[in-house]
Amino acid sequence: MPVLLVTRSSALHDAVVPLCAAAGVGAQVCDEPALVLTAWTDADLVLVGADLAGEVADLAPLRRLGVHVVGLPPGDAAFRSAVALGAMSVIDLAESTDWLVGALTDVGEPASPGRIVGVVGGAGGAGTTTLACALAQWHAPRGPTLLVDADPLGPGLDRLLGMEDVAGVRWEGLVETSGRLGARALRESVPRDDHLGVLTWSGLRRRLDLPTARRILPVAVRGHDLVVLDLARQSGSTLAELADRCDELLVVTPATVPGVAATARLVAELGLDGRAGLVVRPGGLSDADAHRLTGLPVVAAVADQRGLAASVDRGLGPLTPRGPLARAARDLLSEAA
């Protein structure tokens, strides 16, 4: 029973219940405060009508998240009752239908969002996209995962994973949408293989629309345990903003003099802080050299993986059960958690 509506008001009933039905969300309407306590803690969302808010407050139900006092309008007394209930807000549904629609779209989603891990190449050809795919593939059996292609000039993450023919919305479709998108709707609409979803482009001409990314990323992280961003090194201010939205940022660099030098310039340009770590690929420099020149801690060293190109060409993605990418993904995500 996702939504509990406590009211005797037919107007409130008619304002809430049809929207629940339209959102595909079950609702229980209770007009007797004495019966509220049996369902109080089970509902994902509790809407207490202003007409009964005082009586419900007198019962002193357990404090919990997701309680709102609603009315048409609620009236001044509703605010005192809301304080007694520990309600999160007092809502005038006559002016806040969009708020209710938005609240219903997220019913059933976890209260605590997942996390965003960004992957960016310190130098060209560092293997950023390969690592991003491996992280997402490793985590997908453990929880809902979204792999986001933020590199318009990349190969297309769906192609690396053999999902280019899987139906679902791409970036172009999201640019054309308006209104509030729910976490569940996004999770179910992108191309998906079991627990792994991919958000990428459908055509050859690509451009990352930053306002759309700003709108989509908070929704994505509410609906997934892990969101992996494959970031484009060349995107300037766009890269800086997307990197700032990440909980952890992995900078991939080959352990070569040109590679580490380019990585150091990127690190200085972005002003990276303690959320960033260095993933080192094979080369002649040591981990200590890479740390000294970039200022970032080395969080993983990933060796070359045999059969990688063949695995990707077959649409299986880069991850193999016991390869170096699998070990790196396990260690990186465990440490980040």
TrEMBL record:
Pfam families: Rv3660c_N. InterPro entries: P-loop_NTPase, ParA/MinD_ATPase, Rv3660c, Rv3660c_N. It comes from the Bacteria. SUPFAM superfamilies: P-loop containing nucleoside triphosphate hydrolases (SSF52540). Residues 6-112 form the Rv3660c-like CheY-like N-terminal domain. PANTHER family: SEPTUM SITE DETERMINING PROTEIN, SEPTUM SITE-DETERMINING PROTEIN MIND HOMOLOG, CHLOROPLASTIC-RELATED. NCBIfam families: CpaE_hom_Actino. This is Septum site-determining protein Ssd. The gene is ssd.
